[in-house]
Amino acid sequence: MNQLLDNMLRAAKLDVTLYETVEADKSMLGQATLVVVISSLAAGIGSMGTGITGILLGTVISLIGWYVWAYLTYFIGTKFLAEPQTKADAGELLRTIGFSSSPGVIRILGIIPGLNTVVNLVAGIWMLVAMVIAVRQALDYNSTGRAIAVCVIGWIIQMIIIFVFVGAFVAAGAR
Question: In the chain, what are the domain boundaries?
């Protein structure tokens, strides 16, 4: 457990060497998954208005979102925006992007009245910066701008997918 916490702190501090280590170490997928779960639970607890069902559903949705975003990032980053030295597999992105969720643990502070919006904004920006670093390292990019582009394009596609699924779910419920 101490190793996980140390790795999460290093990831939150945007330690490039941690992201390189995570990229290379296939055995860290379990830790990356646990980071996503912990971060999601922190967000759920921080927004407590959703109750235990909301927290559990939010955690499952976060895990699915992480998985989808990692694969989108892999595809976009290796097929459309690859640099000559880019060599990666989906597992490398699952691991590095998983650890980029580490700053999201601060979302638990949203339980303090009046702080939820600010905490979520800070966590969101911090996690996005961590994700750009994670993507840059996993895809072996020299350009941070290219990593930003991959993250933005992946986010847009993920949002479209979410809107389609939510729309289908709402439409099915309206019948």
Answer: 2-174
Q: What is the pLDDT of residue 50?
A: 65
Q: Where are the beta strands (DSSP E) in the chain?
A: none
The whole-angstrom separation of Cα 169 and Cα 164 is 9
Give the angle subtended at the CA of 31 by the CAs of 47 and 17, to the nearest 5°. 105
CB 55 within 8 A of CB 44: yes
State the Cα–Cα distance between residues 92 and 153, nearest whole angstrom.
19
Q: Over the stretch 72-118, which tens digit does the pLDDT of each residue have?
A: 999 999 999 999 999 999 999 999 999 999 999 999 998 898 998 99
How much is the pTM?
0.89
The answer to whether 98 touches 32, Cβ cutoff 8 Å, is: yes
Tokens of 82: 């690859």
**Can you tell me whether residue 11 is helix, strand or coil?**
helix
Per-residue CA distances from 68 to 49, 134, 164 (Å): 26, 16, 14
Nearest of 65, 63, 126 to residue 100 by alpha carbon: 126
Mean pLDDT of the chain: 91
